[in-house]
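Chain X:
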Amino acid sequence: MRVGESKRPLSNSWRLLVGLFVVIALAAPLSAGEATLHRDSWGVPHIWADDYSSAGYALGQAQCEDSLSNVIYCLHAGVGRLAELMGPGMLKADTEARKLRHGAFAKRDWPKLGFSTRQLIAGFCAGVNDYIETHPDELVVPIGEVTPEQVVAWHRSLLLLSAVAISRADAEASKSDGYHPVYNPKNVGDKGGSREEKKHPGVPPGKSNSWALAGVKTASGKPMLLIDPHWMAEGHLQLYEFWLHIRGEVDTGGFALTGTPFPGLGLTAHAAWTVTAGGADSSDAYALKINPDNPHQYEFDGKWRDMDVRKETIRIRQPDGTMQEKRIEVLATRHGPILETKSGVPFAAAMGGYGRADAFDQYYKMMTARTTAEFKRAIGLNRISYFNFMWATAAGDIGFVQTGQAPLRPRGFNWEKMVPGWTSASLYRGQVPFDAHPTVENPVTGFLQNCNVAANVVTPGLTMTKDDFPPGVLFGHYGQYRARGWRATQLLTRVDKATLADGRRIAFDSYVPPADLWAPIILQAWSEHEATAADQRLREAVKLIGSWNRRASRDSVGATVFRFWRLACHEMDSKVGRDAFSISNTPEIRRDALAALRTAADRLHDTYGRVAVPWGEIKRLRRGDKEWPLSGDGLGKLGMDALRATAADTFNDQHKLIPRGGQCVTSIVTLTDPPTIRAVVTYGQSNKPNSKHFADQAPLFSEERFRKVPWTLEQLRSSIESTKKFAYDSTEKP
């Protein structure tokens, strides 16, 4: 048997009869190759397994039960095979995946992964394949067997999402220069690098929250961690909740990328972890000089060099079900894969970790670490790109590190734009050691927060500067808190002996920090204004702003006026309403502020028949034919940037804002023994409309409430809704 292959001990038809059955009471002790899948009263899977293979098998079955279409999509996306399922519309996505070689690197690295990692993934694939075979009525088109390489490729593709986006942004930043690099050759070749050259790439720093409280700040005396990614709430990027217990090996759980069997955000009995966007910048764009007589050659140090040329065949499903094939070329230079700008200009994308597909081993080591030292060694593998990584351990430690496989860049080049790919002087000088990345552990303040802020403001009192770190590592908006980070710092500073109720209050805080700056300016502008009878709507809007408690709660009318004011500011050619921590309060700013408020008041009245409209009538959570009011708001089009980040900035035809992402899988973890966990997802565990768990958590999410998450079998006992037992045993041995 080849490495990674798992032999199935039972035929599929026989397994249907004897390998899968419903148990009335709790499962008996497991035998080799058995896994028991309990679903609690919210439909969330809790798996107790004998080994990694059977655990993966049960999890594969569970993900398919809840979200088969998403699983299939994900496992075809990474390897560039979506057109096989969905037709010509997916050709562009498949071409991109082939250019980035996710499938090729996954195939190469799959046999190199650790034994237990491979067992969990291989078992997962077996569970998916058996579900597909036994539920053909749920398939829109026929599906072949999925393989472990597809899981690895999908995971790799998502880890590189930000890296690809940054390299593209750097390339597009050269548009005004005709897509030609502009650089100062004076310092070319100097290995020191300039600390000012890579201030930030041209992409937003992301929208997620995290914080950690040390035991001295909690009622339990144990660390507390917030897991709060602002991500897609539905579709193939939706996160999947599960809890997994493998006998004698690991107790873990949390939220995984659909189509994978490892918790990307989660916990064990020994540690908990989460991420936000905005890690170390590890990507660049190299301009190319391509041989006009041979498109497969590029200039490097005065000579034409051959590109790496690979032929790929993409199969495309036609409306009649037949397949057509399209042959493409996948090109790369020594810098990385060749991509194109929006204008069709080719460039080479250089990305830290591009040549690897082994990040799953880091997750395995994280979830099997027993001590803080072991957990830190696992993080130090540095296989997770471009994230602010927050963690806590049961031993009492909390920490932050800005991850990303960042290069050592030579001086003399503007790394925010294209750099010349035809000279060895622009080549990377190695990789920044992980221990040189911005790191903060166990601060005297007793807390850390990262709401997409820079490393120097994750807690008050830090003295780190850009000069403390290699160039390009201290990413983005240096020295600024941003509104959510400022608010989190304020609340975490005040809290003492925090309970889970305190954690919930902070996680769902709907205070609107920008209002502290702009509301006084609006009120001053009105006080200076000579009101007339024509100002009735404006007068009412001013009154609502003046009496507003500056929270975007569901029943708040002041929040609605302020949000529409911000939208009107977005449409103006003015600095008024823009995100800032200070502003020159000039007569012009006050004039524009009042003009924007007039626009907002008129728009509210014309659209809804009144100026005073509760925020929850406009900001709505919707699934199927049901709706619920929502609090909070995100960033889009000058949103309110509350910690309660319910993102939506496009009105539907009913003049409502319906989020499809933002705060989506919020969880508070306290590392007691056993861990104490509270969580809620946007809609429910299942994506099947006929399931009772399709939207059963939506009322909780609307009302800013958590559900209790059982950790032990004893805690789970009273809330078991269903139980299934699976028999699956891999014959592969270490």
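Chain Y:
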Amino acid sequence: MLQIKKVSITHKKDLRTIVQDFSCVFNDGDKAVIIGEEGNGKSTLLKWIYDPELIESYASGEGERIINKERLGYLPQELPAEDAEKTVYEYFCQEALFWDQSPKELYQLSRSFHVPEDFFYSEQVMNTLSGGEKIKVQMMRLMMASPTVLLLDEPSNDIDMQTLEWLERMILEWPYIVIYISHDEALIEKTANKVIHAEQIRRKTQSRYTIANMPYLQYIGERQNLFTRQENLALNERREKKIRDEKIRRIEQSVASKLDNISKAERDGPGRLLKKKMKAVKSMEKRFAREDEDMTQMPEQESAIFFKLGDKSAEIPSRKIILDYAQDKLFSADGGKTLAENISLQVRGAEKICIVGKNGVGKTTLLRKIAEILMAREDICTEYMPQNYEEMLDMKISPVEFLNISGDKQEDTKIRTFLGALKYTADEMNHPIAELSGGQKAKVLLLKMSMSGANVLILDEPTRNFSPLSGPVIRRMLSEFPGAIISISHDRKYIHEVCDVVYELTKDGLLQWKN
């Protein structure tokens, strides 16, 4: 059993409360997903549960962890900088239990993660691995330590379909405790039996959390029904109050008018009765005012982001050739390995293309080459969202500074309005981009795309850092984008709802999926 008592976490820079009085008990068999909008402290809470010292550079936390005999294992959202330059072998050597693994156990682990048997001894530098390979390496080392509590921050990011299926089975079959953050709605729907919903309401001035011991879809459905019932009840009570108040107002006006027009002869008899009636009306007003304090409140919930990408100017003629790409051989980034051969891809008009494939097959390398070609073209306007946002973002400056190239004050105001629609607080707009969550960084890039007037988007895992609440908005936005999209994704909902054509990159080239 893992018990968390009264955890409160405050951001040091703007003194915003990220988590307020969070308490929860986790037992064997719990598959708890933490959901919430970007920047709501999900990763910070997970770090604190694992080791409170991990957040000390940017936040202060207080509370109690009762771990008992549990062994905690933690997968961070990003590969730690101190591990980036290590070889794969050096990385595994850091885990003392690596040396206790038998050849059979290593073989079984390699089969589960779909990597070569000798992968554990690879001299490849960690930072040169694909995004999915980095996740696999960290997960394999984590499993070697035999944890009883898995704390996983975005374990589904960038991993291929085969490994994603393994991850689903692993979570479902894990006999102990799993606490995870994921933006993969399909994964959450299939695996979670406990939902922790972190919210920031009242313009991010108040932190709130909900714990529901039920599957995700049931939670979402019951939550919406509860909000709808509460909203209807609150609206009915307000309508009844309006009718009641109007009736009392008319009575009060009538009595007041009669008192003003009463003659001297009537002041002792009818006058006293009118005054008593006025007193009764005033007393009734006070009683109703006290009752109104207990009226059903309008439900407060954190709304999903509002965003639109592209307008009519981004429309592309259906016959226009956006890309006619052919390459005999695709080499790895260092040029030392042939990843795929006989690659051919043609994109026309406003097609929305998705490329899938195993980790390490060269999808990101291919997309970078396509981006270089299209961004050099003058007849189209192309924007690129890489898997690693740092390739396109200046991490030292604020989102406003990054987006406002001209420095114009009116442009500054417009950008702040857009960021507000994307759920940024005024303080977050001025934070260095490095201090923002992955989803908030992705929003900056999407806003840049929107403001640029791009009609071609190159997207490497575009939905990987958006919450399950924002995910449907992002998918709808991309589906309705009037231009062309060339993307990589393993997000099954994105592939189904957005993409017209899906190709699998193999060592023999791009193979089109059949519907």
